[in-house]
Design goal:
Elements lengths: L1 H27 L4 E7 L2 E10 L2 E6 L5 H36 L3
Antiparallel strand pairs: 1-2, 2-3
Helix pairs in contact: 1-2
């Protein structure tokens, strides 16, 4: 039984480190999403962000397609990290329950 407990504690420590890494990476990446708005038959890119319950649309400007693509990639990566962070936290809760002996 001690071997199982030691493995669970190691996994719990690993998940804490993973969580810190995800939080650090999420802080570096931009939140929100990109949307295109059509104004007088032209399409303009906007960065849409929700802050304190308020949705803000910020004009991105005249970015090249590569820069716009990089921004979109960063936004997608942030969303992926948030999903992984949620899974890591869920796993930590399950391990904590197992160590306490509850189902």
């Amino acid at each position: 039984m001690r071997a199982l407990e030691s493995v669970l504690r190691e996994e719990q420590a690993r998940l804490r480190e993973v969580e810190k890494g995800y939080v650090r990476e999420i802080a570096k990446l931009p939140p929100g999403s990109l949307q295109k708005k059509r104004i007088k038959e032209k399409s303009y890119p906007y960065h849409v962000v929700s802050r304190k319950g308020e949705v803000r649309c910020e004009y991105v400007g005249r970015l090249s397609p590569e820069e716009l693509g990089r921004l979109q990639d960063k936004i997608v990566l942030r969303k992926k990290y948030k999903v992984l962070l949620k899974e890591a936290r869920s796993s930590q809760k399950q391990i904590a329950r197992a160590l306490r002996g509850k189902k």
